[in-house]
């Protein structure tokens, strides 16, 4: 489990267990959920539509055997049902603001009953932006409830009437892989529901989403030129686990992530000019676009581009191998500094 998330989760559990620290525990829970939600929205904002219905671990056991879209739907459907039908006995968020229509979902259940190809087919039908809006609406509504909870509410239990209400809502499939959820939720008290599904369930599925997206990036990069448009080497990049390269649709480098349309300015410019990379560009030395802007380690990247211009991409890869054998570093500027010409000399010395 992600160390930071796991520690926040443990801290939250211990704080909500005592009346004196209960409120602080709820604050930490909301903070943890915010961290996890940021991870989910960054995936939604940066991955291409087809990423959401791929199952790169289809044969595996575990949460990562699903799709990104399924994971989002499942986390927030469960939470919506638990908060509104089990605890608050009011209307689920899915049935407000046309969410059911907007998401395009053919089901109102949690999705536990779906198996194999049916998960991919279901995921393909979803409008991911609308699903993300639904997720946010559920998150906000749950947190509103959490903020109004008192320590004594943690011991509140549920009855057979509550179970009947959930079954009657048809939000849980009668399939044996799903129907157990009704007993599972209603046999807990509110304190138990805070652990599962309001915190741990999010962590498990968000981690699974990270595994799925990282695998999709690795698959996308297979057979693709490993030299980025700016001159960096993807095979030696500290982000390579989660970036699918600027030469694929899975471009999630830091520049692509924060640029409109999710495209790095250097990659966009090279494509517009019809060149293989900035190393072929006549404006390289003075260029201030994207990664080449002052103060971004851009001069180190330019040194790489200049090196490619002189010796070629293969030679750069060999130099990068040599440098990684010699030194322990993440970013190339840690080794070649921020001076383009001096950087080029260091690269040449390591041929
Ligand atoms: S951040 Fe750039 S160099 Fe790193 S893997 Fe992505 S495209 Fe390649
Ligand atoms: S102008 Fe700058 S970003 Fe565009 S191709 Fe040339 S060096 Fe690259």
CATH class division of the largest domain: Mainly Alpha
- The residue fraction in helices comes out at 55-70%
**So, the CATH homologous superfamily of the largest domain?**
dinb family like domain
Structural classification: mainly alpha
| Cofactors, ions and other ligands in the entry | iron/sulfur cluster
Contiguous low-pLDDT stretches (5 residues minimum) are none
**Total separate domains:** 2
What is the molecular shape? elongated
Descriptors for this entry?
351 residues, mainly alpha, Four Helix Bundle (Hemerythrin (Met), subunit A), 2 domains, binds iron/sulfur cluster
Question: What would you say about this model in short?
Answer:
This protein has 351 residues and is mainly α.
How would you portray this structure in words?
The chain has helices spanning 3-16, 22-46, 68-87, 99-103, 117-125, 128-148, 160-169, 180-186, 190-195, 200-221, 254-258, 265-273, 298-311, 313-326, 333-336, 340-349. The chain has 351 residues and is mainly alpha-helical. The protein folds into two domains: 3-213, dinb family like domain (Four Helix Bundle (Hemerythrin (Met), subunit A), Up-down Bundle); 225-349, no CATH class. α3 (68-87) runs antiparallel to α10 (200-221). The protein starts with a helix and ends with a helix. The mean pLDDT is 95. The structure holds iron/sulfur cluster (2 copies). Residues 266, 269-270, 273, 278, 281, 283-284, 287, 289 line the site of one iron/sulfur cluster (SF4).
């Amino acid at each position: 489990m992600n160390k930071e998330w796991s520690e926040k989760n443990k801290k939250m559990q211990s704080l909500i267990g005592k009346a004196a620290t209960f409120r602080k525990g709820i604050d930490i829970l909301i903070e943890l959920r915010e961290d996890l939600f940021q991870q989910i929205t960054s995936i939604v904002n940066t991955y291409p539509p087809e990423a959401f219905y791929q199952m790169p671990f289809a044969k595996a056991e575990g949460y990562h055997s699903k799709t990104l879209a399924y994971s989002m739907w499942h986390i927030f459907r469960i939470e919506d049902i638990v908060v509104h039908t089990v605890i608050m006995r009011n209307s689920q968020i899915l049935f407000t603001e046309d969410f059911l229509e907007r998401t395009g979902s053919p089901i109102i259940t949690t999705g536990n009953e779906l198996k194999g190809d049916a998960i991919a087919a279901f995921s393909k039908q979803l409008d991911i932006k609308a699903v993300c809006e639904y997720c946010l609406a559920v998150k906000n509504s749950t947190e509103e409830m959490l903020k109004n909870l008192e320590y004594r509410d943690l011991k509140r239990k549920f009855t057979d009437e509550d179970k009947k209400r959930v079954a009657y809502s048809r939000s849980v499939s009668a399939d044996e892989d799903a129907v157990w959820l009704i007993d599972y939720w209603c046999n807990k008290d509110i304190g138990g529901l805070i652990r599962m599904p309001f915190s741990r369930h999010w962590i498990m599925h968000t981690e699974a989403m990270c595994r799925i997206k990282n695998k999709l990036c690795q698959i996308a990069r297979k057979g693709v030129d490993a030299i980025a448009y700016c001159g960096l080497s993807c095979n030696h990049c500290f982000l390579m686990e989660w970036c699918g390269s600027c030469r694929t649709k899975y471009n999630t480098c830091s520049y692509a992530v924060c640029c409109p349309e999710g495209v790095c300015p250097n990659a966009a410019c090279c494509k517009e000019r019809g060149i293989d990379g900035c190393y072929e560009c006549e404006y390289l030395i003075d260029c201030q676009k994207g990664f080449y802007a002052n103060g971004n380690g851009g001069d180190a990247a330019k040194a790489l581009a200049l090196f490619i211009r002189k010796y070629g991409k293969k030679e750069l890869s060999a130099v990068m191998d040599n440098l990684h054998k010699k030194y322990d570093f993440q970013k190339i500027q840690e080794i070649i500094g921020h001076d383009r010409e001096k950087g080029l000399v260091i690269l040449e010395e390591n041929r």
